[in-house]
Q: What sequence folds into this?
């Protein structure tokens, strides 16, 4: 069955960095675009970044220049490198494959 397992979240100070990972299984990873979403308390889930099968990337305006999405097809893993973190980046971050599966989420908390 399809599984997406995120890791790498935690507590970091403003200006710090974190690297999230999402290990995928149960489908042909290299044939699928992958996305990272986030959901802050009391807010709707929002799309953060997308990486296509060909390696093209897209970002929400709020994270452009600070976050980098990448993929390693040999490891069936998608990453989100987050730099210059701000308190408003605090959220649960989810990995998503567009045919309809979500990971369980990983908490990122940025202290001011």
A:
């Amino acid at each position: 069955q399809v599984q997406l397992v995120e890791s790498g979240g935690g507590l970091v100070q403003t200006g710090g960095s974190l690297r999230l990972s999402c290990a995928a299984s149960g489908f042909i990873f290299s044939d699928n675009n992958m996305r990272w979403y986030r959901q802050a308390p009391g807010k709707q889930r929002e799309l953060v970044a997308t990486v296509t099968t060909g390696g093209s990337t897209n970002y929400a305006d709020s994270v452009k220049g600070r976050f980098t999405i990448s993929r390693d097809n040999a490891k069936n893993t998608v990453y989100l490198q987050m730099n210059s973190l701000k308190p408003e980046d605090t959220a649960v971050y989810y990995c998503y494959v567009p045919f309809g599966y979500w990971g369980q989420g990983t908490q990122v908390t940025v202290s001011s």
